Hints:
The structure is a homodimer. Chain A is of the alpha+beta class.
Amino acid sequence: MTQATSTNKIVILGNESVTLPKGYKAGGMHCGIKKKRLDLGYIVSEVPAAVAGVYTTNIFQAAPLIVTQESIAKENKIQAILVNSGNANACTGEQGLLDAAEMQKKFADELGVQQHLVAVTSTGVIGELLPMDCINTGINQILQSEYEQEENFKQAILTTDTCIKQIGVQLTIDGKTISIGGAAKGSGMIHPNMATMLGFVTTDANIAQEDLLAALKDVTNQTFNMITVDGDTSTNDMVLVMANGLAGNEQLTKDHPDWDCFVDGLEIVCKELAKKIARDGEGATKLVEIQVSGAFSTDAAKTVGKSIISSNLVKTAIYGTDPNWGRIVTAAGYSGVPIEPNLLEVSIGQYKVFEKGLPCPIVEEEVKSYLEQENVVIYVNLNQGDYSATAWGCDLTYDYVKINASYRT
Amino acid sequence: MTQATSTNKIVILGNESVTLPKGYKAGGMHCGIKKKRLDLGYIVSEVPAAVAGVYTTNIFQAAPLIVTQESIAKENKIQAILVNSGNANACTGEQGLLDAAEMQKKFADELGVQQHLVAVTSTGVIGELLPMDCINTGINQILQSEYEQEENFKQAILTTDTCIKQIGVQLTIDGKTISIGGAAKGSGMIHPNMATMLGFVTTDANIAQEDLLAALKDVTNQTFNMITVDGDTSTNDMVLVMANGLAGNEQLTKDHPDWDCFVDGLEIVCKELAKKIARDGEGATKLVEIQVSGAFSTDAAKTVGKSIISSNLVKTAIYGTDPNWGRIVTAAGYSGVPIEPNLLEVSIGQYKVFEKGLPCPIVEEEVKSYLEQENVVIYVNLNQGDYSATAWGCDLTYDYVKINASYRT
Lengths: 409, 409
């Protein structure tokens, strides 16, 4: 599968992930935090890599986020990422910070690198101290070759996710093949401004750190920050991109003729991971995409899209395959954006359901049958301008209630 | 049951409603919009009454809201309210406006009053034209004595509500007994800034219209606007207060020594209706109250309260009787209010679950057993100032999903 861009071709590789780029290895194991499933994973680069990160806007930032941000601030480089699942190390006070730092130091020692070159992150239950005995024993063993498998890493970062999320792309810059690979986990508390969403992206591009960070922020705003599962923004959200330069290209900056191509590649990776998180939202049966066009600004388009995809009434209607355009229109109407009721057009798939302030005649069974698909697209044209945005989410189901009435986050 | 205030005593009458004040009658009937249940109701005052209204902030205002607001603007008085359920007359374009006006005129003619003295409102399915034949036939008959029962009115305004919502209070001003009575309907699309929430309050107080409106806005912000069922703000929300002056008191204004007592009475009525709407939210099994204190402003307290009560994760945890303080803390943390993590204290009922950035030791079974009650109170102290606010909502259950995956709003 290839996607043409202005300057280049980007090859999308659905079965690749964080070890697609040169110089990365990844692994994972069961260290004992969870009952059975893998719960400790790593990515390691052969050489220190430029790093860019975006973090939750929740005031309660989990301990590992604090530790990682402080470490990255030192020289904007890391060489490794260590992740545990099953315990978020959030709301754990001073001891939580000490534990995150201990985890970081111990893994740095195993690797023989400086402590601040290791990023640590955690996802799972809030408010319980990390079981440091399990984690320390795990760190002692995890670099053994039996655990070194990209698949293990992708498994080890999951919580209530039902599947791994991965994607890879390749493009050519300065005659060199540049690879970008990603892995992520969802699946509840997802309404990022940065959810318990973790995203890890690796590339072998040689790229200026400040430009990488600018690109990540930009891309995150179009991708990870445009998904919602339940409107809850977690304490642990984090997306990290590592760029180790081993592709051997001239350093990429904003002024490089192929800059946009790289950013497009990064965006494809982040968007694919974001959509997979939305599709695998707790209890979800469908991926729902809201494409808003004709807005007077990008922010207005985003706000309308997020308002619709966040509506419990829209989400339950889609679960029930009910072509309930009234709830879509209502959610657009309370978004806070001054839309013009008589200009608004709404389509469910190819079926126009609302325009000029009135519902359109539809064959209910046709639209219902469209809604039975796993991927539902709703088009909203505000007819007020030239800006657009897309938001992704999922339906709201019995299983969402079941999972969350019993699972202790 | 009585409640002492600074100036007076307010007697609360749980079984009274809109005909408690002097000079009001109410009724309702089945006119054929719904299959069987009552669907057309009225309140009529013997004399024109000062009126104050608050309306949905949704950009898509339903036709009857537009017609009613225009009519009220003429002289800030009405003598009657006509309500239908089963059809919201929203997203119905020009014809919808004509239908709302026709309904208004026809009822005014039956009563022998000017058209603009009738407020009309509708609740139910969006985007279908009103069945004017049923409504017109209904209006022809509804003033017959067989339909004149307050109980009928309270029934006729319901949609997916499982019960009527009513309350009355009495207080004494200038030696005269003043009564205030109210009735309301919920129960989905409830996140007022004005939900499909309709509230009707009557009083026999003689009161200046502009002061009545100021009091209603103030009280609504503390009551109806502090409840949520699903975060969706409907196209049809409206609260109307009629004051016909038949109690014979000197005209109440802000300067009257008993002004605060009247406002307290109005607040009790609105708060009780609001709480009943929250408790009867679609599929709800519990009323959840979030009491926020220690905020640096009232707005901050409200924002934190609404953020917590709007969280699907908090709502499902309460349904599952799971003392999941982590979700409460998380929702406070993403509210946008700059709270201080180490100052925050959270209690579930009498059980303190979080302080100084850390969970408190609890006997899980005790808190679980508290959460099994029908009324759950969560206390959140921000310890940053002296302001407080209360928000109300309900749990999120299988039945919410069931109702909304199949019901066409």
